[in-house]
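FORM 7B: Structural annotation worksheet

SECTION A. Query
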Amino acid sequence: MTEATAQARPGGRSAKVRAAVHRAVEELVTEEPVEALTIPLIAARAGVHATTVYRRWGSVAQLLNDVATSRFSGDVVVPDSGSLSGDLERWVGDVATDLADPDVLALMRATIGSGPDGGCACTADRHAQLSAIIEREQARGGEVPSVGRAVDTLLGPLYYRAIFSGEPASGEWARGLVGTLLTTVRCEASGRAGAAVTD
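SECTION B. Predicted structure
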């Protein structure tokens, strides 16, 4: 066995174990209530020893967070249409489509229900994407909302509708959220300009 082979094998096995365990979690959350998920059940579905899962993740909550972080990282591409409205409209449409997937919803509900860090695991990458869109528009010299306001106006309603209401968010409805956000930004910019003239 060459030194390169000896070094590659553990990483390869580790990646295979992680993929098998992640796949087992994604399958089980669509079949079982989150309360029924246990490390032995997940390990059996993945075809690995439970001690391997305990050693790597420690708890079901940590494992769910890892699966959600992996699933929601890079799943939606940050568009570059040349305008803030175009970027946001395409982005919210893609997020709405993703949130309409029953398997995605099952993973989100399980992760959020598993502990206080679950929500961050499901939304951190989307916050980063919104930040990237807003920072790019700012670099172009455009008026932009704060990331917090964009999260509240766009992601808040999308996630609420998906997780709690069960109503699918149509592309048109999601794009309407962008209109609301940008109207607010324009009104605030006009108000600042008017105040400057008055002063």
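SECTION C. Observations
Confidence is low (pLDDT under 50) at residues 1-10. The two ends are 79 Å apart (CA to CA).

SECTION D. Sign-off
Analyst initials: ____
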